[in-house]
Every structure is written in structure tokens, then in C-alpha cells.
Amino acid sequence: MYEKQTFEVILERMLARVPNNVDKREGSIIYDALAPAAAELAMSYIEMDVILNETFADTATREYLIKRTAERGINPYPATKALLKGVFKNREGNLLDIPIGSRFSLDDLNYVAVEKIEKGQYKMECETAGSIGNKYFGSIIPIEYIQHLATGELIEILIPGEDEEETESLRQRYFNSLESEAFGGNIADYKEKINKIQGVGGVKVYPVWNGGGTVKLVIIDSEYKMPSTSLISTVQTIIDPINNSGQGVGIAPIGHKVTVEGVSETLTTITTNITFQDGYVWEDIKPYVEDKINEYYNDLAKEWAGSSNLVVRISQIEVRLLDVTGILDIQDTSINGVQQNLVLDANSIPKLDVITA
């Protein structure tokens, strides 16, 4: 709005107010007196433009967007800590119990045993908040001596850790709150409450799916993968515990019998005909091809919650694989033996099984 109010424009306008019988040339007394004032006014216009942008949610930077969204009770989701399964054994290879609170390290991260699952298996919480806690598996080393312990290993993610909510996600949540009001167990209310739970990356809500008062929630984890049974159980307990279903013990309204399920995975076998660049063979580029397809599948999974059905498109596979160094051309691509796009079930995401070329 104020971008046209430059130093030159302001100074010219100020000089125009001075009578023409007065010397207004650069270096004159009048010019030298007005130029500093024009510079300050130009700076003021710049600041006013910044203030104007920070006033509205669609142009505000993160600091001021948080102030705006807070007016509607919407705050950025904080970073959370990953929860993983740890398995511990003694020298004989038998499962070994360890003290709750035992701390272990893996690379630059530390983990603490917070809950026993069963003999020799524990829920291990990463001490560093964020998605970094989802990235490492394998042998862990005790920070303090534990008697009879020979090996410890992190084997799977139970509840993914999440980074602090990104600015654009927060902005979109704010606008969504203006379009649909969350109230007393309506669809918007369920989505709002489910997405706040640690480890959940998205949800589809199916009201009256099995008769009056029934609600089915299908979730995907925050890594956009099939959720663990631990995460599904956690969400079920928070929303509507199975033993007290429909009684309002959880955050679901009284009378709502809620069933929580996880998104399923559809295995895909991809066959294609690749023309290689000189000096390249399939074994050289296969890992990069798999990475490209997994990246595409992850992009699709991010859209799952907002789509009716995901579609794995052959054109997208071929376009992305052409970016792989060593591939000159690609054709005759098929998915699960058919040369056409694969339409997934409403509650399914794709997973790469085998690729051959």
C-alpha cells in the first residue's frame, strides 16, 4: 500500500510546495533541509507497510500470526518426544528387565525407559523433542551401569515425535476455524481434537457408520505411515475408552461410541522398462529409484486425510524417476501388473513392495 512512497517521491512532493522563486536545487539550503525529513518519512511508510502486513493472518509472520490465532484459542502444536520400543537382553540372550528411568544413548540422542511393556520390553522416550527421535534404530548404550545387561536395541516407533507446528499449518488451521465451527462432537470437533494428540498426522471421521451414535475414526501417524497399535490404543483411550464406550469417560460426547482404526497399507509391485545412460546399470540406481517412489508415496500419504481416495499415478512415477541420474528414458510402467493408475481404498495408503526394471 505504501510501497510507492519512496524517498524520491516524498522529496519531490515536498519541494513542489516550495515557491519556485526559491532555490530548490540539490545542495541548496531548502533541499538539504527537506532531504533528511523525506528520508525519515520514507522509513515511516516502510514501517507502516510492515505493520499492515503483520495485522492480517494471511500475511503475518510467525510471531504475529501466533498472536492473531491465539485470539481464537488456537496455538501452535509444541514439539513432542518420540516413544519407541526397546528390547533388552542378558549375556545368555534372554530378555532382561531394567529399572524404570534407565537412560541410554544412540548417536547424539538419549532415551529413557518410561514404562514396561512386558518382560525385557520397554517404552523408551527420546529426551530430545521433535521428529529427530523417529530417525534412529539399533543398539543403545546404557549411560549408567545396569547389572547383567548385555544388549539393548530400539526396534520400532510406538508414537512418533513431532516438530513444533509449521507456520503455514498454523495459518491454515486458523482459516479452517473460520470456515467450520467445532462444536460438541461434530466432524470438525473430532478432527480438531484428534489432530492435537501426539503422533497423529491426520484423521478421517465417519459418523453413524454402524448405526446411530457410532463414530469411526481412521488415523494416520505424524510420519504419514500406518500407526502402531500403541498409538491406536492411546487415541482410543483418550477419545472413548473401550471399557466405558459411549459413557463420556473420554472426550467424546456422551452417547457416542467411537471406534479408532489405523490407515492400512496397499503393497505395490512396480514393473517398468528403463533405458539407462551410458555406464549405468540397474543395480547402480535401484536404491535411488526406491527413494523416489517412497518420496512420492509419502507425498500422497500427506494428502490422505483430505482426500476421498488416493490415486497412484503412473505418470507421476515416470516423471519422478526421470530425475534419477542414470535414467535416460522410461516406459511401459505397470502397477500390480496393470498399466494404469491404481485407485486405493478410502482408508489406505500406498507402500512399495517390489520394483523391477
Principal-axis shape equals extended
Strand order of the largest sheet: 5-7-1-4-3-2-6
User: Helix share of residues?
Assistant: 25-40%
First CA to last CA: what distance? 56 Å
Average pLDDT rating: 93
Element order, helices and strands?
Answer: HHHEEEEEEEHHEEHEEHEHEEE
* Major sheet details: 7 strands, antiparallel
Structural class: alpha+beta
Quick summary:
By secondary structure, the protein is α+β, with helices and mostly antiparallel strands. Helices cover 30% and strands 27% of the residues. The chain has four domains: 7-55; 83-159, no CATH class; 180-262; 265-356, no CATH class.
Helices and strands in order, then pairings?
Elements: H1 7-16, H2 29-55, H3 62-70, E1 83-89, E2 103-106, E3 109-118, E4 121-126, E5 138-139, E6 141-142, E7 151-159, H4 167-179, H5 187-195, E8 200-207, E9 214-221, H6 229-239, E10 257-262, E11 264-276, H7 282-302, E12 311-312, H8 314-321, E13 327-335, E14 342-343, E15 348-356
Parallel strand pairs: 9-10, 11-15
Antiparallel strand pairs: 1-4, 1-7, 2-3, 2-6, 3-4, 5-7, 8-9, 11-13, 12-14
Helix pairs in contact: 1-2, 3-4, 7-8
Domain Baseplate J-like C-terminal: 269-356
Organism: Alkaliphilus flagellatus
Domain Baseplate J-like central: 182-261
Structure explained in plain terms:
It is a single chain. With 357 residues, this protein is an alpha+beta fold. It folds into four domains: 7-55; 83-159, no CATH class; 180-262; 265-356, no CATH class. Helix content is 30%, strand content 27%. The chain is built from eight helices and 15 strands. The protein has helices at residues 7-16, 29-55, 62-70, 167-179, 187-195, 229-239, 282-302, 314-321, and strands at residues 83-89, 103-106, 109-118, 121-126, 138-139, 141-142, 151-159, 200-207, 214-221, 257-262, 264-276, 311-312, 327-335, 342-343, 348-356. The strands form four sheets. A seven-stranded antiparallel sheet has the order 5-7-1-4-3-2-6. Helix 3 runs parallel beside helix 4.
